[in-house]
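Onboarding guide, step 5: your first structure request.
Type a short instruction followed by the sequence, for example:

Predict the 3D structure of this protein.
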Amino acid sequence: VVLGESGPALDALPVTALDDYRLCPRRFYHAHIEGHPGARDEIALARRVGQVVHEALARRLRHDPARLAALDPGLPDGALEEAAGLVRRFREDPVFARFRDEARAREVDLALEVGGLRLSGRADLAGPGWVLDYKTDAEAAPADHALQLWAYASGLRKPEAYLAYLRQGQVVAVAVDGLAKEAELVVNGIQSMEFAPTPSKAVCRRCPYLPLCEEGRAAVDD
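The system replies with structure tokens like these:
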């Protein structure tokens, strides 16, 4: 995102921005225009746990809280234990065995262009014909990440895309065929600077910007 004198000029974004906008344009605005880190401490802590888990799996570190502490020295002990348990689950749970066995690359960079907007990302794991992204979310909500997985599959030319929900011990296949049109519509909205909120209870209650949004709070309280 480049901020010019006449307002924000959007020319490059992370692929996760597509789902942020699809879930709610106001959420996108806070995250990618303002660069706001979020206004809910519990979500911020959960994100830090997720970052430690991703880094540990990428670097093949042991699921040892003391070892993982170096990745985020300020993370509370309980959160480090939590992160270690999630790393261990991916490495040991039989539900993830196929992806452990077939993996050919980790932290795979990718780039693609949609409607003149350059998108970049880094897929957690890739194998023959598939791409997979780790999720440490408190609840499994695959629709929240559909365009992210579409971008990974498109950028890496993989026909199959999966989410590995580590807390739930669950693998979810994401149907990415046919999402190109939806991605184009999202990009059109971003480029048109349409950032009005689209509140719904299901989305707003998980939003890191809920305290900043009157419409979102009303939807949650409804």
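Each response can be followed by summary notes, for example: Residues 1-7 have pLDDT under 50 and may be disordered.
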